[in-house]
Amino acid sequence: MFVRGDLAVFGGKPVRGRDDPLPQLFPRVFPRKALDYVREVVESGLTSDVEERFKRAFAEACGVKNVVTVANCTAAVHAAIASLNLGSRDEVVVSAISDYGSVAGVIAEGAIPVFSDVDVRNGCVTAEEVEKVMTPRTKAIIVVHWYGLMCDMDPIIDVARERGIIVIEDCCQNPLGEYKGRKAGTIGDLGCFSFDPEKHLSAGGGGAVITNSDEIARRVEKFANLRGAEFIPRYGRMHTSF
Ligand SMILES: *Cc1c(COP(=O)(O)O)cnc(C)c1O
Predict the structure, then answer these.
(1) How many Å apart are CA 102 and CA 76, to the nearest integer?
(2) Any domain includes 79
(3) N or C, which end of the chain is more exposed by having fewer CB within 10 Å?
(4) Domain assignment of residue 129, yes or no
(5) Who lines ligand 1 at CB under 6 A?
(6) 96 alpha carbon to ligand 1 midpoint, in Å?
């Protein structure tokens, strides 16, 4: 545990300096298997089931019923907000410390992000801080499991359930993190993930929404991947509303 005086900003010895920078992101080193997967997709003429296999493996690893793959986590949160029909004047409580991707979809759908402070010990929102900024217009809470640490979820879920509010977990920085035996993203109503090169679980790009609700999964898929349409076999895309 750091004490205040140890931190370089307060005069302590820096862990990193100009001659000892942080590890660089590029060039990336990919395992051989990565190229095999790309080849499989290309050689199959885009009919490979590699994505389905990933979805099954990720669902099993998380212990969740549905995985919807999307472009990135910004799209995942956007699809989550849209799938819940949140919009004009609805308020969504969002962690004050996060990536802009946690907020962009809220704004894009016309909802109002309301920022909740975090616990100074782990950078994660708490039920107490969330409650301080909730109003009768609050429709959802986006918690962020920051830097590989989990939010204390039980009290947050209690607050949300009491008022019928949806809980979205932004798990970009904590895939497969655990809280009381449950995996990140399976405690609230939906979990959002990024597979960006900077994240713990990288696919060079990509994201996912996980949920145990078939209805939410269907709506997320429709918004994020089917351009608002249903796919009818032998017919094609049938544009229907939510
Ligand atoms: C990176 C990140 C995002 C955005 O993810 P993208 O896949 O880049 O859109 C959202 N939330 C958190 C906490 C992140 O770290």
Answers:
(1) 9
(2) yes
(3) N
(4) yes
(5) 72-74, 98-99, 101-102, 144, 170, 172-173, 194, 196, 207
(6) 14
- 35 token code pair: 């190229």
- Say if 9 falls within a structural domain: no
pTM: 0.90
What atom in ligand 1 is closest to the CA of residue 194? 7
3-state secondary structure at position 175: coil
**Is 57 buried (19+), middle (13-18) or exposed (0-12) by CB count in 10 A?**
exposed
Could you report the per-residue pLDDT of 193-214, keeping only the tens digit for each? 999 988 988 888 899 999 999 9
155-175: pLDDT as tens digits: 999 999 999 999 999 999 999
Lowest mean pLDDT among 27-31, 102-106, 169-173, 177-181: 27-31
Which residue range is the domain that position 156 belongs to?
66-227
Structure tokens, 24: 């660089």
When divided into structural domains, the chain yields a total of 1
At 214, which CATH number? 3.40.640.10
Whether residue 46 is contained in a domain is answered as: no
